[in-house]
Every structure is written in structure tokens, then in C-alpha cells.
Design brief:
Layout (H helix, E strand, L loop, with lengths): L1 E6 L6 H10 L3 E4 H8 L5 H10 L12 H8 L3 H28 L4 E5 L14 E6 L2 H12 L3 H9 L4 H7 L2 E4 L4 H16 L5
Length: about 200
């Protein structure tokens, strides 16, 4: 089974590319969704986080109060590093479990959709890495349209993430998403066929 690591900054179109990979037959593991599922009320993960950061981070339903946790780690680099260590380890274990499951089911390919693919070390799980990039103005316009925020906040979000230049340097393949969805689909499908070596119908 080919394991494809997928990353890209906000507004790049990574999520759409991930959806296209799924439509082409790949199993997709969205690491953000995995984290949300791991933090369900009463989970071992929530208990570990509460032991580490205090029980004020548990909401009334027994789940994770993300805003409370964020306020604790935002201004404290040591605590933020500790949160990253816990979250990345938990997500990685669950991702590996799912990859083994998909392989046992005979999947040709699986996509690990991880915004922090390299920072988390998840790239080491993958056969190849793919970055989705788009020019800055296009990304800003997409973020504003999607999230209803102003230009300054969209720019700040981009500035806080890995640059497209860094993605171009580190990824095995790059998908340039500077057109419409049809163009992105064609590029994604062509790359999928190249990586996995299967005919696309």
C-alpha cells in the first residue's frame, strides 16, 4: 500500500485535494479529525491532558475545552511543546492503527492528511509526500471567502504556517492549485496515477 503524506497551508486547497484522492480510491486519514475523535468525552486522551494541564480544560460534557487549553499553552512555549508531544504521539498511534487496517483490506493507497506533516514527524510514515500550493493572493481570497475574516487575519494565519517555498523544498511532489476545481482534480488524478500506478476510471 502506498502511503501518501499530504500537506498545504490554509487556503491552498489541501482539503479539496484530499477529497479528490478519496474519490480516486485512496483511504484518507485526516489527522485533525483523528485528534477531535481522540478528545471525545471521557477518553484516555482527555484524562492525560487534564493530568498535565489541569482539570479546567474539561468541559461540562467531559470533553476537551479547546479554548481553555489554548489559553494555557498559547503564551507558554514549554507547555505548548508538551501539548504537541502528547497530541502527536496519540495521533500517530491511531494513524498507524488505521493504516494497518486499510492495508489489511487491500487498499492500493492511503493519504495521511496532516497540516503539520513534517513538524509532527508524520512524513516518516509515508512513502511519498505531496504539498498543495497556491499564490498568496489566491490563498488570502479563499480564506476570507471560507471563514469570513479580514485580510489582516488571513495574512496572519498564512504567516504562522510553513511557507510554500519550504513545502517545495521538502515535498516529493507539488500540486499547484492556481485554477478552478476541475484543474485541481486533473492534477490530483494525474499524480495519483503516477504514484500508485493504477488506472483511473
Amino acid at each position: 500500500m502506498k502511503i501518501i503524506g499530504l500537506c498545504g497551508g490554509s487556503g491552498s486547497g489541501k482539503t479539496t485535494a484530499s477529497d479528490f484522492f478519496a474519490s480516486l480510491g485512496a483511504a484518507v486519514i485526516d489527522t485533525d479529525l483523528v485528534w477531535h475523535e481522540l478528545c471525545r468525552p471521557g477518553s484516555d486522551c482527555v484524562r492525560e491532558l487534564a493530568d498535565e494541564f489541569g482539570h479546567d480544560i474539561i468541559d461540562s460534557d467531559g470533553g476537551l475545552d479547546r479554548s481553555a487549553l489554548g489559553s494555557i499553552v498559547f503564551a507558554d512555549s514549554v507547555k505548548r511543546a508538551r501539548l504537541n508531544a502528547i497530541s502527536h504521539a496519540r495521533i500517530k498511534d491511531e494513524t498507524v492503527r488505521r493504516l494497518r487496517m486499510f492495508e489489511s483490506r487491500g487498499k492500493d493507497a492511503a493519504v495521511v492528511d496532516a497540516p503539520l506533516l513534517f513538524e509532527s514527524g508524520f512524513d516518516k510514515l509515508c512513502c511519498v509526500t505531496v504539498g498543495v500550493v497556491a499564490d498568496r493572493e489566491t490563498r488570502i481570497a479563499r480564506i476570507i471567502a471560507r471563514d469570513g475574516i479580514d485580510v489582516a487575519r488571513a495574512e496572519a494565519r498564512i504567516a504562522a504556517q510553513i511557507t510554500d517555498e519550504e513545502l517545495r523544498r521538502r515535498c516529493d511532489y507539488i500540486i499547484v492549485n492556481d485554477g478552478d476545481k476541475n484543474a485541481l482534480y486533473e492534477r490530483t488524478a494525474s499524480l495519483y496515477k503516477q504514484i500508485v500506478g493504477v488506472d483511473i476510471h
